[in-house]
């Protein structure tokens, strides 16, 4: 039994066995009460009458040949109905390979290539799942209002809803059972003349970055925030903090980190132009080339301005990472001893103990929110009038230039800008004539002078 090329043909080789099995099916029909057609007037059964039985035998033949059932993705031998996509299987395989690979100088290049491949597959899996789900569910698309946005992230039943009521006065259902909050509940906190939007997000579970418990919608909404409040139960193990941080890290959120000081640019030719302005303790040129090969980038300009790691380089290549501050809020401190609280404070950075039920330390929490987001109040002064002390302009971040101040009011204000008069801590004398690059300080007063004397 050979095909035209002279090679054995497995399908043809099994044809006698298939014919034997079909004949055996007719014998089984006799046992079931059926009859063989006898005589010229007897009719043989049609294909539709024994097609199901034949299909069962064909399935058995496939099993004898060693080919398992095909999954939904068309891969032979996969587990049918396991709920995993092809990208998720490859992710699991790469993670298993990384776990069993020893870390040394000889294998670092291979491990870096695996990390780059893993990051690409996770991005692909996230894009595919977003397309299938059609975006976030109802209640997660909240319009941004106010001067900044803060999101609550935590496991169920840690007191997020009660804390929202303490900070904003907005009622959010709270109960002793888990998953009381099933959608995003917004509120506005007023502090130091600013309006800060607070989002009470549903509790997440382990595996949220993989889509469990609508975790991707929750974390996706958290990516739009300016500050994350990691709300934890002081009576639960501290490992909950590590689990949540891993979930956020897997979704591209980097907590309490600055963007890597790495310059990267694709080029059309010339190969890799690699420069390290700082001594590198982890990365080598060979490791960088292995990572770029996984991204299929043969020509690029790369300048390392810090002692970087392979993970930081991959984050720069991915280009979709979000860097934001995070405050670890340990709730329910009324249920632990003072000694336990002091141990937590000495071991954990960014630690703040509160009790949302009794309202303990809520004022300190508001001050920490203000400082972690690096908010700055700047008061406007119309010409010939007193400053407006009731509605300051709020600037976020370390860059508090006059240019950002003008854009915060209206972007067209820069077209007629001539100079600014500044009163306050940033002024060397009162008032100081300042340009667009002048850095402002908290509670400065600014008067913008337009062209034409306006």
Helix content: 25-40%
* Helix-strand topology string: HHHHHEHEEHEHEEEHEHEEHEHEEHEEE
Total E-strand runs? 16
- The number of distinct helices, counting runs of at least 4 residues, comes to 13
Low-confidence segments, given as residue ranges, are 1-8, 31-78, 134-139
Gyration radius (Cα, Å) is: 32 Å
Shape: globular
Let me know the largest β-sheet.
6 strands, mixed
The chain-level structural class is alpha/beta
Strand order of the largest sheet: 2-3-1-4-10-11
- State the end-to-end distance: 97 Å
Average pLDDT, all residues: 80
Strand content: 15-25%
Assembly type of the chains comes to: single chain
Description of the molecule:
The chain has 454 residues and is an alpha/beta fold. It has helices spanning 10-13, 15-31, 47-65, 86-100, 108-133, 160-168, 215-222, 239-250, 285-294, 310-318, 338-347, 362-372, 402-409; strands at residues 148-153, 185-191, 194-200, 227-233, 253-255, 262-266, 272-276, 300-304, 322-324, 326-331, 351-353, 376-380, 393-395, 417-423, 432-434, 444-450. Strands 2-3-1-4-10-11 form a six-stranded mixed beta sheet, sandwiched between helices. A five-stranded mixed beta sheet has the order 13-12-16-14-15, with helices on one face. Strands 6-8-7 form a three-stranded mixed beta sheet, covered by helices on one side. Strand 14 (417-423) and strand 15 form a beta hairpin. Helix 4 (86-100) runs antiparallel to helix 5, helix 5 (108-133) runs parallel beside helix 9 (285-294) and helix 5 (108-133) runs parallel beside helix 10 (310-318).
């Amino acid at each position: 039994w050979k095909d035209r090329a002279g090679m054995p043909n497995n399908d043809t080789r099994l044809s006698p066995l298939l014919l034997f099995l079909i004949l055996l099916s007719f014998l089984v029909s006799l046992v079931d009460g059926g009859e063989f057609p006898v005589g010229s007037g007897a009719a043989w059964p049609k294909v539709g009458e024994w097609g199901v039985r034949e299909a069962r035998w064909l399935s058995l033949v496939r099993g004898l040949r060693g080919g398992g059932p095909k999954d939904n993705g068309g891969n032979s031998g996969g587990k049918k109905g396991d709920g995993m996509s092809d990208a998720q299987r490859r992710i699991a395989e790469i993670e298993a390979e990384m776990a069993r690979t020893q870390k040394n100088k000889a294998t670092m290049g291979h491990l870096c290539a695996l990390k780059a491949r893993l990051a690409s597959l996770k991005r692909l899996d996230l894009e595919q799942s977003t397309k299938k789900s059609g975006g976030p569910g109802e209640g997660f698309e909240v319009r941004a209002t106010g001067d900044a946005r803060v999101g609550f992230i935590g496991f169920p039943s840690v007191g997020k809803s009660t804390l929202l009521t303490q900070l904003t006065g907005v009622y959010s259902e709270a109960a002793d059972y888990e998953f009381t909050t099933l959608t995003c509940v917004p509120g506005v906190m007023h502090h130091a003349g600013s309006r800060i939007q607070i989002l009470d997000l549903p509790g997440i579970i382990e595996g949220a970055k993989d889509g469990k418990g609508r975790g991707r919608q929750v974390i996706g909404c958290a990516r739009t925030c300016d500050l994350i409040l990691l709300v934890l139960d002081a009576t639960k193990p501290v490992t909950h903090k590590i689990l949540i941080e891993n979930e956020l890290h897997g979704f591209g959120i980097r907590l309490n980190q600055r963007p890597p000081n790495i310059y990267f640019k694709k080029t059309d030719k010339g190969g890799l132009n690699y420069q390290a302005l700082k001594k590198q303790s982890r990365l080598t040129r060979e490791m960088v080339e292995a990572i770029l090969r996984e991204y299929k980038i043969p020509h690029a300009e790369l300048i390392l301005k810090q002692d970087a790691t392979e993970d930081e380089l991959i984050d720069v290549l991915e280009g979709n990472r979000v860097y934001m501050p995070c405050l670890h809020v340990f709730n329910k401190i009324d249920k632990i001893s003072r000694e336990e609280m002091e141990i937590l404070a000495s071991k954990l950075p960014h630690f703040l103990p509160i009790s949302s039920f009794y309202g303990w330390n809520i004022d300190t929490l508001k001050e920490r929110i203000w400082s972690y987001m690096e908010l700055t109040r700047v008061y406007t002064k119309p010409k010939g009038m007193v400053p407006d002390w009731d509605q300051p302009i709020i600037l976020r971040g370390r860059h508090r230039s006059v240019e950002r101040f003008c854009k915060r009011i209206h972007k067209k204000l820069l077209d007629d800008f001539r100079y600014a008069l500044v009163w306050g801590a940033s002024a060397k004398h009162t008032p100081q004539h300042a340009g667009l690059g002048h850095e402002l300080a908290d509670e400065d007063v600014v008067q913008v002078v337009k062209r034409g004397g306006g």
